[in-house]
Amino acid sequence: MAEPAAGPARDRDWLATAVEEARQGLAEGGVPIGAALYAADGTLLGRGHNRRVQDGDPSAHAETAAFRAAGRQRGYGGTTMVTTLSPCWYCSGLVRQFGISRVVVGEARTFHGGHDWLAAHGVEVVLLDDDGCAAMMRRFVAERPELWREDIGE
Questions:
Q1: What is the pLDDT of residue 1?
Q2: How far apart (Å, rounded) are the C-alpha atoms in residues 66 and 14?
Q3: DSSP class per residue in 96-117
Q4: What order do you get walking across the sheet with 124-127 strand by strand?
Q5: Which residues contact 145 (CB under 8 A, 6 or more apart)?
Q6: What's the pLDDT at 108?
Q7: Largest CB tally within 10 Å, which of 74, 97, 108, 152?
Q8: E strands of the chain, at which residues?
Q9: Are strands 124-127 and 102-107 parallel, antiparallel or unpaired?
């Protein structure tokens, strides 16, 4: 099957990869946030999900997992980080530090992270406002409020 052309259809297709990761994280007893890093040509470089609980590692956020799974790249210009939830300050810093060009956000209703800051600093931000991502996070927050508060540093 051909890769969708650049635009909303492609972004939603890429979000599906991040959603799969989020669901895997939830099934493992973790926080349901997933991410994927794509090259400018549409190649999937890496994917991952929040593993803070599973690994006992407070830095194991979804975006970090996807970035690490991508391995060393010569540069990150032109890449797109796709995430099911607005990136926190830690993950927003990763995007800026390494010059990731675009961030596609599944939803920011549950948590409004650093995506406005990224946009103000030249990163293209696409907010999809996906109902499925929002519903998954709302359920999680209702069922595991203590874990959610821990994850966002409250």
A1: 46
A2: 13
A3: HHHT--EEEEEE-SS---SHHH
A4: 44-49, 34-38, 80-85, 102-107, 124-127
A5: none
A6: 97
A7: 108
A8: 34-38, 44-49, 80-85, 102-107, 124-127
A9: parallel
Distance CA(44)–CA(138), nearest Å, equals 28
Query: In whole angstroms, how far apart are CA 21 and each of 11, 96, 116, 126?
Result: 16, 23, 24, 19
Q: Is 28 strand, coil or helix?
A: coil
Other beta carbons less than 10 A from residue 36's beta carbon: 30
Output the pLDDT for position 152. Answer: 82
pLDDT at 4: 60
Q: Is the distance from CB of 107 to CB of 129 less than 8 angstroms?
A: yes
pLDDT along the chain (154 residues), means of 10: 72 98 97 97 97 95 98 96 97 98 97 96 97 97 93 82
pLDDT of residue 3: 55
Terminal-to-terminal C-alpha distance of the chain: 44
Look up residue 33 and give its two tokens.
Answer: 């946030």
Please identify every residue annotated as catalytic. 63
**Dist. CA 90–CA 17, nearest whole Å:** 22
